[in-house]
Design brief:
16% strand, single chain
């Protein structure tokens, strides 16, 4: 990570922490839960070495970004975060209205879809990982849909009540929390039965790290989360219903930005609520007309940009070089 610089940018009443490296066209990387800018460490260095300015913020509520009260989940809607990104782009670009490349993963992908839908004038091309576009659903928000299928123990449902899931996570160290999250390899639904922790990995079961994840990586995530807490990240889930309400004007809207999508065939997001059929059956292409390529990587799970950095780096570069 030699040469990565860190700055704090004043935007929308926040101090947004960014990590950046390189000169040239901007590539903005958006992380997911429970991650940070650090999830993009491999991509930042690679894109900078290939003639781009790689910029990765800690999103509102995460890491070293400050200025928002985490006790108010209504401040964590998708429109809030898209607004942060537009303000950030205004601050770091040379020309007003300059277009940039965007790469998103997990929540970062979900936000990137909305960024492209709300403000396609600011995005040159999009590479999204793991989470496909989710069109606005008149029947309700994602939590409502998942609760109806998977019940009260599904992680998105368990994340809804303020303080409850934080108390459960507090029973383990941040190091253990990150290890259990990042090493999840079951593509099925994620459950957190009350009082039982991660169903896929019991609290007293030690985690063996895979080759792509080091103790130093875990320590960085854990240290940052220990300082900032994880409520900010969980608030994105708590604000899903409000995000759904605020986004209703985009009912039926399409994402009109050149796009490439990459997902692992063992990714929990790929197996969620008919998503595989949507991606491969034509629905995805209908909603994202400029979708140029879908790549399904074999034997890869959710944290794809960390598990397979070399492949993801090449997928990103191959696509954005076209523009």
């Amino acid at each position: 990570m030699e040469g990565i610089q860190h700055k704090s940018i004043s935007v929308n009443g926040l101090n947004i922490h960014i990590a950046e490296k390189g000169q040239g066209p901007i590539v903005m990387f958006l992380h997911g839960f429970p991650e940070l800018w650090y999830s993009w460490r491999h991509q930042i260095v690679y894109l900078a070495d290939h003639g781009y300015r790689a910029v990765a913020p800690d999103l509102r509520g995460y890491g070293q970004t400050t200025g928002v009260a985490v006790n108010d989940h209504t401040k964590f809607t998708i429109p809030h975060v898209v607004g942060d990104l537009i303000g950030l782009l205004d601050a770091i670009t040379n020309d007003e209205g300059e277009k940039v490349f965007v790469v998103g993963h997990d929540w970062g992908a979900l936000i990137a879809w909305s960024l492209c839908m709300f403000r396609p004038d600011r995005v040159k091309a999009l590479v999204n990982l793991s989470v496909a576009f989710v069109p606005w659903n008149p029947n309700g928000d994602m939590v409502k849909m998942l609760r109806s299928v998977h019940g009260e123990d599904h992680y998105m449902t368990r994340f809804q009540k303020p303080g409850e899931i934080e108390a459960e996570f507090a029973k383990m160290s941040y190091q253990t929390f990150m290890k259990k999250f990042l090493t999840l390899r079951d593509p099925g639904p994620i459950f957190f039965p009350q009082g039982k922790g991660f169903l896929h990995s019991q609290p007293d079961v030690p985690v063996t790290l895979p080759p792509w994840l080091s103790e130093e990586d875990i320590e960085y995530f854990a240290t940052e989360h220990q300082k900032a807490g994880i409520t900010g990240g969980i608030n994105y889930y708590r604000a899903l219903h409000l995000s759904w309400e605020l986004s209703s004007a985009w009912r039926g809207a399409k994402v009109i930005v050149p796009t490439k999508f990459v997902v692992g065939d063992l990714d929990v997001a790929y197996h969620m609520l008919g998503m595989k059929d949507y991606i491969n059956g034509g629905g995805f292409k209908k909603d994202v007309p400029l979708l140029e390529e879908v790549v399904v990587m074999e034997g890869v799970v959710h944290f794809i940009n960390q598990e397979k950095p070399d492949e993801i780096n090449k997928h990103i570069l191959e696509f954005i070089r076209k523009f």
